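To close the chapter, one final illustration. This time we ask the reader to focus less on the individual chains and more on the assembly as a whole: which components sit near each other, and how the overall shape emerges from the parts.
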Amino acid sequence: MSLGRYHFKELGEKEKIVRVIHRHWFDILQQFFIAFALIFAVVAGFFVLPALFQFETADEYTLFLFIESGVALLVWIYMFLIWIDYYFDVWIITTERIINIEQKGLFVRHVSELKHVKIQDVTSEVEGLFPTVLNYGDVHIQTAAEQSRFVFRSVADPYKIKGEIMKLHKKSQYKNIRQLGRMIREGKLEL
Amino acid sequence: MIALFGLLYLVLFLVVSITILVIIFHIVRYSFDKTATTIMLVTFISVAAVLILININTALSLDMEKITNLEIKSDEFREISF
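The assembled structure is written out below.
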């Protein structure tokens, strides 16, 4: 996966993005059902209503177009509000940490991060017919940090994500041990 | 009556405009992928602009007196029948 095009302002010098995770597409599709139904109603209304009511004057047709365009605009905005809530809920796994960004509505945004070395346990959960068939579910990360639990909700291939996080956690532990060993050898740390 | 419709439309238009600006702000500020940002902005702004133009154009073309007169005439009819 080419992640060169992603940019995140607070990345460290040697830190690299390993994976950027959004919720599974089926999660947003469920929310878009209502929007699709409304779009269908708008489009169908555009063709059916003039035939049903047979507008006699230009004013009636203008009023109809005014209402149709207004409703279409509101539906379009509604779709993009759903999209923003989906797209900006993101989990970024880097070589050093996990960043959890949650967009709750338009004006509430929570950003938290967790260093790999603070991970205690990782659990993946796939429950239900659609999650099993489409292979999506939750990943729970138990931590020793201030926020004791990170949850990746409705993400694709949770087992693979769990494996990657565990790998990065082990790497960070080995790195810490090597650093400790070097500090002892160099006399920077006295036992 | 016409002034009331005009005022209501203006308020609604302002609310919709602010919502659109907020959406654009979010796309520009918080997006991580520049290609996705461009695609989202172009898609959203183009469709929203077309719909807004149609809406404003039809709103300005509406003859509110005729539409409100239709209501007045039906009220008069009810009074006479009663």
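Helices of chain B lie at 2-30, 34-61, 64-81. The longest helix of chain B spans residues 2-30. With these observations in hand, you are ready for the problems at the end of the chapter.
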